[in-house]
């Protein structure tokens, strides 16, 4: 039995994401209140309840740490050395229409070391993908851990097509869908696009269920993104190749995200992305 004093940050992240996932699963299919955020974005009562369940775990286990939740905002000192990043239900629109493609993301950012622990839970498969910063595993519903092993064999590439599009005319992931080099001839021959619209697909790259994932986005994606920090940490720990759309580290440069199972796949996709820029 792990005591609170001995519990690792990775185990806290895993427990917190699992607690949020349990709420998401329990509330699935119910008629839920919606809270408009503007620009077509909204939260449901499940987003809010799941975030509270995550925060309950974090407050009890790490009361001195700062937290940024997608729904509740930031608490703790602005320049805190340790900050938890919480996305309680990534794929809200999927969830609201009865699509089970969602994730609960929890990550710990250390000011000096980056993301040091993270978990991304799939409420419906019962899996929790997690990392302690050194390795990455999937914990099944039976409680057993299996190491994540990336693979590009499927050739499946998930594209995030949701706005905003900060690079505008330079690059939009949607344009890859019609690029003949993507699924036809050329360097990207044989890639197969998918649109999951949830960062569970980022964890799937680490697990070998996707060859790659691509999204547009602004700079600073890794440092403060409640949506992507956990998935990026999982992929890096599993040995994936992770950069922004300009090939630079994701916390520098133009932003966006190109994460691939191996260097060959990453190089082919990055070439296609940069051809549009």
Please provide a written account of the structure.
There is one protein chain. With about 280 residues, the chain is of the alpha+beta class. Helix content is about 30%, strand content about 25%. It is built from 9 helices and 15 strands. The protein has helices at about 10-25, 45-60, 90-95, 175, 180-185, 200-205, 220-225, 230-240, 265-275, and strands spanning about 35-40, 40-45, 65-70, 75, 80-90, 105-110, 115-120, 130, 135-140, 145, 155-160, 190-195, 210-215, 240-245, 255-260. Strands 4-3-5-6-7-8-9-10 form an 8-stranded mixed sheet. A 5-stranded mixed sheet has the order 12-11-13-15-14, with helices on both faces. A two-stranded antiparallel sheet has the order 1-2. Helix 1 runs antiparallel to helix 2 (about 45-60) and helix 6 packs parallel to helix 8 (about 230-240). The longest helix is centred in the N-terminal third of the chain and has 19 residues, at about 10-25. The radius of gyration is 18 Å and the shape is globular. The mean pLDDT is about 90.
Instruction: Note the gap between the termini.
Output: 53 Å
Strand content: 25-35%
- Give the structural class: alpha+beta
- Overall mean confidence score, pLDDT: 90
Low-confidence stretches: none
Integer-rounded radius of gyration:
18 Å
Share in helix: 25-40%
Say how many strands there are.
15
The biggest beta sheet, please? 8 strands, mixed
Q: So how many helices?
A: 9
Strand order of the largest sheet: 4-3-5-6-7-8-9-10
Helices and strands, in order, run as HEEHEEEHEEEEEEHHEHEHHEEH
